[in-house]
């Protein structure tokens, strides 16, 4: 995803410090960085940095209207919330005393992540063949 490149820079810096407190909050730091990038790209410009270079924008369906605020937030939830939830799911289950559901929740989260990746691949394939996105 777009924010995965940001993960390379803070991780070694956080691990070098003597404090494990910063390492414990790595998923939150990554989510915050992705949120900042999303806010100044998709939220404000209706395009990512790469799309902006190519003069492309996100549109809603075939009506050629820019994506709505709700669609932007759903995109952010998928882009930012899904990886954060995957990284923190074991901690959340432990906090609520639901450790017995850990394996099933990991399977569900993995299935959701694979579904999103397949939808993205299908969307790209449709764009490649028809020169327009369908999903």
Automatic annotation (TrEMBL):
**Location in or out of the cell:** Peroxisome membrane
- Source species, domain of life: Eukaryota
The name this protein goes by in its record? RING-type E3 ubiquitin transferase (cysteine targeting)
Q: Where is the Pex N-terminal domain?
A: 17-130
Which keywords describe this protein according to UniProt? Membrane, Metal-binding, Peroxisome, Protein transport, Transferase, Transmembrane, Transmembrane helix, Transport, Ubl conjugation pathway, Zinc, Zinc-finger
Task: Give the similarity note.
Answer: Belongs to the pex2/pex10/pex12 family.
| InterPro entries for the chain | PEX2/10 (IPR025654), Pex_N (IPR006845)
Catalytic activities = [E2 ubiquitin-conjugating enzyme]-S-ubiquitinyl-L-cysteine + [acceptor protein]-L-cysteine = [E2 ubiquitin-conjugating enzyme]-L-cysteine + [acceptor protein]-S-ubiquitinyl-L-cysteine
Query: Is Cell membrane given among the entry's keywords?
Result: no
According to its UniProt record, the EC number is 2.3.2.36
UniProt pathway: Protein modification; protein ubiquitination
Q: How is this protein situated with respect to the membrane?
A: Multi-pass membrane protein
